[in-house]
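Comment thread on ticket #2218

A.B. wrote:
> Attaching the input chain for the structure job we discussed in standup.
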Amino acid sequence: MSASDPRFIEPEEEQAFLDTIERWVQKEVRPVVMEHDHGDIWPEKLVHQMAELGLFGATIGREYGGLGLPASTYVKIIAYISSYWMAITGIVNSHLIMAAAVERFGTEAQKAKWLPVFATGEIRGGLALTEPNAGTDLQAIRTIAQREGDEYVINGTKTWISNGIQGSCFALLVKTDPKTDPRYKGMSLMIAPKGEGFHVGKKFDKLGYKSIDSAELVFDNYRIPVDNLIGGVEGHGFFQATGGLELGRINVAARGVGLAEGALRLATEYAQVRQTMGRPIADHQAIQLKLGEMVTRARAARLLTFDAAEAYDRGERCDMEAGMAKYFASEAAVRNSEEALRIYGGYGYSKEYEIERYYRDSILMCIGEGTNEMQRMIISKQWIKRNPA
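C.D. wrote:
> Ran it. Output below, let me know if you need it in another format.
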């Protein structure tokens, strides 16, 4: 990335911002993590602080009031925060995917109206794609948007939507022509602020990823102006939505990196303090073997994630790179957190210690933004396309 690129950031400026994030995490985040996680408490104060730090505009262009950070800087921020508490990065991630859809595919009028308020966090939200019978297979969605004059009337249900309760606006994937074949040609993406006919259903009680609301959204004759159709032309929603998933998968990879590195940090600290047979367990070969594998996995995950972020910054198609990063980093998070829990022994199974949270949170990384089974298929198909016989 050259200095002429609008998203270029000087190394000194980047480091200063990362130092600010580090101070915030150590002072404000670490002291409240366990209370919020165990009580499943919405971190309102931290959300306001994230807005003040500019994180809701992290990847939004500077011309719209955002920080305009390259993905390669963004992942460093997300990885560091996630190494102490992954869940709060999900509030930012879902919001920025919505913003990216508007910035990449929206009309100039839509960008001018929505991006400045997204950047400040005045309006926060996320991406509403998943339905009870449509997760990985997005083309199976049943939410319908029927045009009536200058409005769309929307009916349907979305599920597992991050920021569903606390968010106020969503990039909503709908069918504008349910009879079209192939199905993806009948799909459109809408900017959907909460209003009459937009109802929040149940909040899901999750194994991990606590404090962050994942909810059901119900649309009952919900009306929005036709001006809220992203890009202004029907039928492009599938590619607009999946295009934004590249950034989302890079974000999940960064969260996986953070979890893997955080688990490694905790395990390393504990192994040097805990003693058996008169010496720290870090001196025992069995623990050394675990730590050796953990540090290698964490490092490999970080490198794969930066590789994907740099490809994204160059404007290249990077679904294969994002898929590899997301797949490997999320599996590294699970494995490292499990090994760290084993190093802690019985204490690792207690909620008095943080490591059990890493284990609970890490599992989501293998599911969110496309399952790891799907990632491997995407990687394989793209690899074959790039290497024809």
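A.B. wrote:
> Thanks. Noting for the ticket: Residues 95 and 126 are 4 Å apart (CA to CA).
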